Predict the structure.
Amino acid sequence: MTTMKAARIHQFGSVESVIINDVPQPTPSADQVLVHVHAAGINPIDVAIHTGAIRDYGFDPPLLHTLGSEISGVVETVGANVHNFRPGDAVVAVLGFPGGGYAEYVAVTPDLLAHKPAAVSHLHMAGVPIAGLAAWQALFEHAQLQRGQRVLVLAASGGVGTFAVQFARWAGAQVWGTTSTRNLAFVRSLGATPIDYTAGPFEEAVRDIDLVIDPLAGDSQVRA
């Protein structure tokens, strides 16, 4: 039996409960792709799983669970029914719940994969899938963003926010983004008019907004 290294939860709680173990390397089915993981993103969902907080939302992950919801890597082998990927392809994947990406290899179905742009490193690409998809789906699949609309992005310097600002600008929207003082220049460089939420209520800084992207929820959503 071929084994690999994987980061698994031995008990819910602190990061010390995540331990590197030797585990069986997955064998892909005829409909799966085996990916050699080069980098994996650290996502809030992984934190919620390893602390046990995710159980408050109706999920009950088992112990000895391998974390990791998004990865970048290289295709090792493909199943007989897979035709759009081949060994050696650089890919990125959203694994979702229950994860499995904090391992040397992961077996996934092709619908969870995309080819990685050559200009982006595995390290940088591993942090793209979940935040990028969340921003894209919010703007285009749910809100049906139109050119010329006025968009307010909360937490514009965060993971989802940085993608939302750039996607909205690409689509021809006018964009404002909330951020702290130290990130004003960064948000401006993304294409948004920055709003310093530490200087006063952000809702008083802009009017007549067509769409709000709010990765924060809570009080900020009500105020927006």
Remarks:
- The domain at 130-223 is CATH 3.40.50.720 (Rossmann fold).
- The mean pLDDT is 92.
